[in-house]
Amino acid sequence: MSETPNQPASPSRRDFFKMGGVLAAGAGVAVAGLTPAAAEAAINTAATLPYKHKTVARVKTMKVNQPVPFNYPDAASPCSAVKMGAPVPGGIGPDGDIVAYSIMCTHQGCPTVYDSNDRCFKCPCHYSIFDAEKGGQMVCGQAPTKLPQIVLEYDAKTDMIAAVAVNGLIFGRQANVL
What we know:
Low-confidence stretches: none
Number of domains: 2
Strand order of the largest sheet: 5-6-7-8
Oligomer: single chain
Mean pLDDT: 85
Strand content: 25-35%
Shape: elongated
């Protein structure tokens, strides 16, 4: 490399990457020196926004394998609750068989349709299929993730189910609660 009298020599590419590695290692040592509580506080900067409870349906009025439409967590978020007829993962109610999902396909946001014969949600736009009995898992298609599952609570005294949160990100959002 040529040097001019008034300018110091530029570091070589190899020296540049060595310096970057040393700086990254030093930062790692500094973070490792934090107490576990301080490290958790430094890493966890996400805000947790509260979900409102929303009544969805009375369990005794729900029919097996027939979806009950509702919107959650706001009016622009269509969802469906389904009484599957047998206990399923994440199911609530007296039989542990009621689940609910956002019906917005995780591929491009088309509203899915519940198919009672196959017991799954199907996207009419690009043919993704989601299993209602397995947590909204994507069975086939172009969707990158499962359907967001709506967390439900059951009140045995009133026989009502209510939506209380969402597991997963609703299509097209940066946060489910705006």
